[in-house]
Write a structure and sequence with these properties.
The complex is a heterodimer of chains A (501) and B (128). Chain A is an alpha/beta fold. Chain A contains 17 helices and 13 strands. Chain A is 34% helix and 11% strand. Chain A is globular, with a radius of gyration of 26 Å. Chain B has 128 residues and is α+β, with helices and mostly antiparallel strands. Chain B is built from four helices and nine strands. In chain B, strand 2 and strand 3 form a beta hairpin. The longest helix of chain B is centred in the last third of the chain and has 9 residues. The chains are: A alpha/beta (501), B alpha+beta (128). Chains A and B meet through helix 17 of A and loops of B.
Chain lengths: 501, 128
């Protein structure tokens, strides 16, 4: 291991500063403010900083190094043209306080993104401000809360989530002060309408759900669920994490949803950061639009007196929704992420549905390859599809259960995941959704070629054929071996300890 | 194969309930539950004296996989909690029915226990 404290810079100092302008003895500071010890900052020189971080980057694994089938995360390729567009000086060097006339180009991009996202989700108005999916959830649920207040229905204090929901759904609703009602899924993993009926009532504020659901299955009865919730006066919230499956095919609006969030860093190829910068815009139906965060971008016909001449006849400007909940982020959110996603969508144009078609085709193909191995290589396959026998197809991702393998030989989903690391792959998502025992959740995205999927399926079968001892020690080829998760969770070490401390 | 001792009451959510000689009631999670959760890393315990209604969530058990609520299958108040779990939550993995007990309660209405499962019922429940 290398860490920044191991470098000693030049003469024990990584930086140089000019001499003080006044003599040190003339600086009068209250004695309690004078440092007794110097802060222990890293002492790297610039080349050492560069070497340290370049070294770290060589130990990393990402979509740029290999196949990354991390279910629910939509780890697709980030086209480099996105970076070219986002780096254009007219975009990258703008300051948000510059005149509106200076910002016409960027505002037109943001306006177009609002419109495009609105059309894709069947929503009336879009806010680009939230910077993560979960922040989008929180923002939209706050809008729903204010909407209910505005019509005098403050008694609505419960939010319904299915037991297969993303953990952020109940967390976002709880952040808004709602009580969470969890409903069980049916045996086949789909939404249980009877369970839903038994919990809706005049205290229902909203239901939060993703479709396709976390098993990668499209909920065929989603509009009935929407009817049930709406007839009780509740609102329907669409978690856009799985939006990659349905673009151009159907919309949350058609399914009966009132609000959605989009994950630009999933569906629209903005790179996933290590916790940021992401982008989680939200779209709402017109009755929720007055409550959206401020500002939104709007446009009017250009006048003669307007200073800047764009290619189009419009003048773009910022407006505040009439009953806005305020701001959830400074300025306009992560504008760079929005611009990258704009560049991505512009390359597809009206063909955006091709993206979803390829993503769904890839997932079904890989699922078929994994569940139907070549008989010469593997007689029986000790894993099972976890969507129940009826699901012949999946959408953009699929789950499989390693429970049969665990019962047979003690090999767990975690062992399989670690074994895949040794084959040069990022592991799939494991142990989510919680409703599937020993779950592996695989999402290839539209990025990958047939050859990549074929090779992955072969390697996956090779992992399944390995013995318990080998897999339990995996990974052995990576920079970091099997991590002791129990130790890590029980004994958190959150700061660097110097040896002499 | 999961251990399911006779003489305890069980719930569909995998809690066990033991009536002590002094009339107090001890609650924990079953061997099946700890096995499914895998290594437990943290237990959020209730406060002594805290009162819970039937079906209330009184503890959260966190494993490397997930955080799971534990429900009280009767109404009662906390007499004592297993403080050992604060530093050694793995006791639930090692001894779910013994040293891994979670909390001891008073019980308002002992008849509430009649609706719970016996060891045999619970066995067929988890074999389903």
């Amino acid at each position: 291991m290398s860490n920044v404290f191991e470098f000693e810079g030049i003469d024990g100092m990584g930086y140089s500063q000019p001499d003080l302008l006044i003599e040190k003895s003339k600086i009068k500071l209250p004695s309690d403010l004078v440092r007794k010890e110097l802060p222990r900052l890293p002492l790297l020189s610039e080349p050492e900083v560069v070497r340290h971080y370049t070294w770290l980057s060589t130990r990393n694994f990402g979509i740029d190094t290999g196949f990354y089938p991390l279910g629910s995360c939509t780890m697709k390729h980030n086209p480099r043209v996105n970076e070219v567009i986002a780096a254009l000086p007219g975009i990258a060097e703008l300051h948000p306080l510059q005149n509106e006339s200076h910002q016409q180009g960027l505002l037109s991009i943001m306006f177009e993104m609002q419109e495009m996202l609105g059309i894709c989700a069947g929503m009336d108005t879009v806010s680009l401000q939230p910077v993560a999916g979960a922040q989008g959830e929180f923002t939209a649920i706050r809008c729903i809360q204010e909407y209910h207040k505005s019509i005098g229905e403050t008694h609505r204090n419960k939010v319904i989530v299915p037991d297969s929901a993303h953990g952020t759904n109940p967390a976002s609703a709880a952040m808004c002060g709602y009580e969470i009602i969890e409903i069980p899924s049916r045996e086949d993993g789909l939404l249980d309408l009877d369970a839903l009926k038994s919990v809706v009532g005049d205290d229902t504020a909203a239901m939060m759900i993703t479709n396709p659901n976390t098993l990668g299955i499209f909920e065929p009865e989603i509009s009935k669920a929407a009817e049930i919730v709406h007839s009780a006066g509740g609102q329907m919230y669409y978690d856009g994490a799985n939006f990659n499956a349905i673009l151009g095919k159907t919309t949350p609006g058609l399914m009966g949803f009132d609000a959605v969030h989009y994950n630009l860093h999933k569906t629209f190829s903005q790179p996933h950061g290590g916790g940021g910068p992401g982008s989680g815009p939200i779209g709402v139906k017109s009755h929720l639009a007055p409550f959206l965060p401020t500002p939104l971008v709007t446009r009017r016909k250009r006048k003669e007196s307007d200073k800047v001449v764009l290619d189009d006849d419009w003048w773009y400007m910022l407006i505040e929704p009439s009953k806005s909940i305020g701001k959830v982020q400074q300025w306009m959110g992560n504008v760079g992420a929005v611009v990258r996603s704009w560049a991505f969508y512009r390359r597809y144009g009206f063909q955006l549905e091709k993206m979803s078609e390829h993503a769904v085709l890839n997932a079904n193909y890989l699922r078929h390859k994994i569940m139907n191995p070549d008989v010469n290589t593997l007689d029986t396959i000790p894993i099972m599809p976890s969507e129940g026998s009826e699901a012949k197809f999946c959408k953009h991702e699929f789950t499989i259960s390693a429970l049969p393998l665990k019962e047979q030989s003690g090999i767990t989903a975690m062992d399989i995941a670690k074994g895949l690391l040794d084959k040069g792959y990022m592991a799939p998502t494991v142990y989510f959704p919680l409703v599937v025992p020993e779950c592996l959740m695989i999402e290839p995205t539209e990025t990958e070629s047939k050859k990549t999927l074929d090779t992955f399926a072969t390697k996956f079968h090779e992992v399944l054929a390995e013995d318990y001892e080998t897999l339990h020690k995996a990974p052995i080829t990576t920079h970091v071996g099997r991590v002791n998760e129990v130790q890590a969770a029980r004994n958190l070490v959150l700061k660097y300890e110097f040896e002499d401390q | 194969m999961s251990e399911i001792p006779e003489g305890l009451f069980y719930t569909a959510e995998h809690e066990w309930v033991r009536v002590e000689n002094d009339g107090s009631v001890t609650v924990g999670i079953t061997d099946h539950a700890q096995n499914a959760l895998t290594d437990i890393v943290y237990v959020e315990l209730p406060e002594e004296g805290e009162h819970f209604e039937n079906h209330d969530e009184f503890t959260i058990v966190e494993s490397v996989k997930s955080a799971s609520p534990v429900f009280l299958p009767f109404a009662g108040s906390v007499i004592s909690i297993n403080l050992e779990l604060e530093d050694t939550p793995e006791l639930i993995n090692k001894s779910p029915y013994g040293e891994g007990w979670i909390a001891k309660f008073t019980i308002n209405d002992p008849d509430e226990l009649n609706s719970l499962m016996s060891a045999a019922d619970y066995k067929s429940h988890i074999d389903e």
